[in-house]
Design brief:
about 160 residues, alpha+beta, 2 domains, three-stranded antiparallel beta sheet, 6 strands
């Protein structure tokens, strides 16, 4: 692996860890020339579908573009890069499981919103406001109400 700082080929793996799902390996590396450290991620290469955009054009799936849009929504939020990588991995897994040659950008947007909702409510609202292109404040308020709804809890049964 080439060092991103000095372009040297000679690097050493200092630490290796798998993510919780076991589908990504994170490696901390140290350059033997400049002694700087950096992180790499290793994952299986998947055959992902083409993305059909709203205008009908088709483009290759771009993991970096997906990550950039999620990171924009997560800007200044307390979410780790490992959590983001795991969320992207789950999105890609769902896309591969569909076993279709093409997927709409709307479908990817819905998958992103589902993952952001689990990661961070504020990031979810940020992404939803752009993705759904709210026409007025009422639509925005509805998403906030949706996030604020308390989860139903089971009431304990009385002992007999």
């Amino acid at each position: 692996m080439r060092c991103p700082y000095c372009n040297e080929d000679n690097t050493q793996v200092v630490d290796t860890r798998e993510n919780e799902e076991g589908d990504t390996v994170r490696r901390r590396r140290r350059c033997l020339a400049c002694d700087k450290r950096f992180t790499t991620y290793e994952r299986a290469e998947l055959q992902l579908p083409l993305v059909v955009k709203k205008n009908g054009s088709r483009v290759d799936y771009d993991r970096d573009k997906l990550k950039a849009s999620m990171m924009l929504a997560l800007r200044k939020r307390p979410v780790t890069s490992e959590a983001v990588e795991s969320a992207i991995g789950r999105i890609e897994e769902k896309l591969v499981q569909q076993a279709e040659r093409e997927v709409s950008s709307d479908r990817i947007g819905e998958l992103v919103m589902r993952e952001l909702k689990k990661l961070d409510k504020i990031a979810y609202i940020r992404f939803a406001s752009v993705y759904r292109n709210f026409a007025d404040v009422d639509e925005f308020s509805e998403v906030i109400r949706e996030v604020k709804r308390p989860r139903k809890t089971r009431t304990p049964r009385p002992a007999s």
